[in-house]
Automatic annotation (TrEMBL):
Catalytic class of the enzyme: transferase
GO biological process terms held by the UniProt record: ceramide biosynthetic process; sphingosine biosynthetic process
GO cellular component, one term: endoplasmic reticulum membrane
PANTHER family with a match to the protein in the record: CLASS II AMINOTRANSFERASE/8-AMINO-7-OXONONANOATE SYNTHASE, SERINE PALMITOYLTRANSFERASE 3
EC number: 2.3.1.50
Species assigned in the record: Burhinus bistriatus
Cofactor names: pyridoxal 5'-phosphate
Pathway: Lipid metabolism; sphingolipid metabolism; Sphingolipid metabolism
Domain of life: Eukaryota
Protein name, per record: serine C-palmitoyltransferase
Gene behind the chain: Sptlc3
Family: Belongs to the class-II pyridoxal-phosphate-dependent aminotransferase family.
């Protein structure tokens, strides 16, 4: 059996140091300040990809940026004015404040930290946290609510808004459903096991359903073993600290999800950020890490691990996996791939970005994904070599402290995964994957033709449509709801200050009629709010990609 120290925390110093010395001796690296990355063998980036790789990050016209900053500026000025009025009792103070008896205490609520929430977010708060009262399928029912005090509080009218087209849920393959026949096995498991486990995996919380699910996940991904967890967010935040620690280096994409960021911070490892999907930025960090080692001591890093996502949930971009794998092999680093949004959503049979690029699962050291999106359930998984998974069964904080996944949820995942694999005796799973691809490409193509600026890869079901100006965020979401279309809008600080957007999530369950209804509404609203900014200008993000020369090792 292989030594688990190759991927597990605290055992890699000699192993990784030896790899670095071998690279230095081989002449791939130089210590004279001028470093050479990968071999210049004439193989361009394009030969790493077996299909055309197209992504869009068009810049808006300059006037849009000017008016966006101006909008935030005006909002900030009026925010200070309203804070002044609240301080002098000219306007009602609705936010949390210190009691008079505690005026000599250090403030528990920092006014300035909540400035944005009080004065900007509150104006458009009605566009978030809307209560849904049905399954979040291609359509849902919404509880109507109104406000009498400018969004500080809400009251329900008792009216239900029926059949709102759902363009915001991560229901990529349409498995969020209530069909009695589809959920028959889930109902059986609910009656057999009940709803909860009331224990952790290491105590009394491992059931035969968990074992069955883990074997199925490993088979689906084509790896040796897998472990499942009850919460997708915790799959990252609680397992990364088990894999890396002090003396290790994490190289993280600047747009990684908060769960990855939190896990990296909790680990105690050194964190360095590379530009989104930019191989030159990543390669420079890898070179510097090999050459200079740890700060002050100059010792070799015990471990270098690259954290990336399959599909980035705010950009709609797909990781440049072939190039990252090439770099990680050349520099002898490890790769942690978060496939939360890509598993089930891309690839010929829904097996994620590894399949999408025609690569081997063995190219990725740690495969992570969630069941909360394509599988219509909850939880997540870590998959890879058996040594890795066995190590996590013992050292994962989630396995030790968190309650196990409830059996009906496990059965829902098994049902959906068997459907994808064709083990249910039908081709319905494959049809769902293909339908998602058709819907995605159709929706993106039509938005491009209308003149909207949208971000991301042509095959990504996450479709960000840029709104830019803060005043248009609320107007867009409210107008769409008036047309019985539910959308997700996102603004600063969740996005860069000049890149507020609406984020659409396409589903295999969306019919062509639904998509056309949404597209027609967008076409009309785009003219009304002047959102069609596209000039078909060249992307500003991958300006350095063409310079890299990479090769894949056997």
């Amino acid at each position: 059996m292989a030594n688990p120290s190759a991927v597990c925390n605290g055992h890699l110093h000699h192993h990784h140091h030896q790899k670095q010395n071998n690279l230095l001796k081989s002449g791939i690296y130089k210590k004279n300040g001028i470093t050479k990355g990968l071999k210049k063998n004439g193989i361009s980036n394009g030969t790493l990809y077996k299909k055309k790789f197209v992504e869009h990050f068009e810049q808006a016209p300059m006037y849009v940026a000017v008016f966006t900053f101006l909008g935030f500026g005006v909002g900030t000025v009026f925010g200070y004015l309203r804070d002044f009025m609240r301080a002098w009792g000219l306007e009602k103070r609705n936010v949390a404040a210190e009691r008079e008896q505690q005026k000599d205490f250090v403030p528990l609520y920092q006014d300035f930290e909540n400035f944005y929430t009080r004065n900007l977010y509150m104006r458009i708060r009605d566009n978030w946290n809307r209560p849904i009262c049905s399954v979040p399928g291609p359509q849902f029912d919404l509880m109507e609510r109104v406000t009498d005090d400018y969004n500080w509080t809400f009251r329900f009218t008792g009216r239900i808004i029926k059949n709102v087209i759902n363009m915001g849920s991560y229901n990529y393959l349409g498995f969020a459903e209530t069909d009695v026949n589809a959920l028959k096995t889930v109902t059986v498991e609910l009656q057999k096991y009940g709803t909860g486990i009331c224990s952790t995996r290491q105590e009394m919380g491992t059931l035969d359903k968990h074992v069955e699910l883990e074997k199925l996940v490993a088979t689906f991904l084509g790896v040796e073993d897998a472990m499942v967890f009850g919460m997708g967010f915790a799959t990252n935040s609680m397992n990364i600290p088990a894999l890396v620690g002090k003396g290790c280096l994490i190289l993280s994409d600047e747009l990684n999800h908060t769960s990855l960021v939190l896990g990296a911070r909790l680990s105690g490892a050194t964190i360095r950020i590379f530009k989104h999907n930019n191989m030159q930025s990543l390669e420079k960090l890898l070179r510097d890490a090999i050459i200079y080692g740890q700060p002050r001591s100059r010792r070799a890093w015990r471990k270098i691990i690259i954290l990336v996502e399959g599909i980035y949930s705010m950009e709609g971009s797909i990781v440049r996996l072939p190039e990252i794998v090439s770099l990680k092999k050349k520099y002898k680093a490890y790769l942690y791939l978060d496939e939360a949004h890509s598993i089930g959503a891309v690839g010929a049979t829904g097996r994620g970005v590894v399949e999408y690029f025609g690569m081997s699962p063995d190219d990725v050291d740690v495969l992570m994904g969630t069941f909360t999106k394509s599988f219509g359930a909850a939880g997540g998984y870590i998959a890879g070599k058996k040594d890795l998974v066995d190590f996590l069964r013992t050292h994962s904080h989630s396995a030790v402290y968190a309650t196990s996944m409830c059996p009906p949820v496990a059965e829902q995942i098994i049902r959906a995964m068997k459907c994808l694999m064709g083990l249910d005796g039908t081709t319905q799973g494959l049809q769902r994957v293909r339908q998602l691809g058709k819907n995605t490409r159709y929706f993106r193509r039509r938005l491009h033709e209308m003149g909207f600026i949208i971000y991301g890869n042509d095959d990504s079901p996450v479709v960000p449509l840029l709104l830019y100006m803060p005043g248009k965020i609320g107007a867009f979401a409210r107008r769409m709801l008036e047309k019985n279309i539910g959308v997700v809008v996102v603004g600063f600080p969740a996005t860069p200050i000049t890149e507020s957007r609406a984020r659409f999530c396409v589903s295999a369950a969306h019919t062509r009629e639904m998509l056309d209804t949404v597209l027609n509404a967008l076409d009309e609203l785009g003219d009304f709010l002047h959102l069609k900014y596209s000039r078909y200008s060249k992307s500003s993000h991958p300006e350095l990609y063409e310079e890299t020369r990479l090769e894949l090792e056997d």
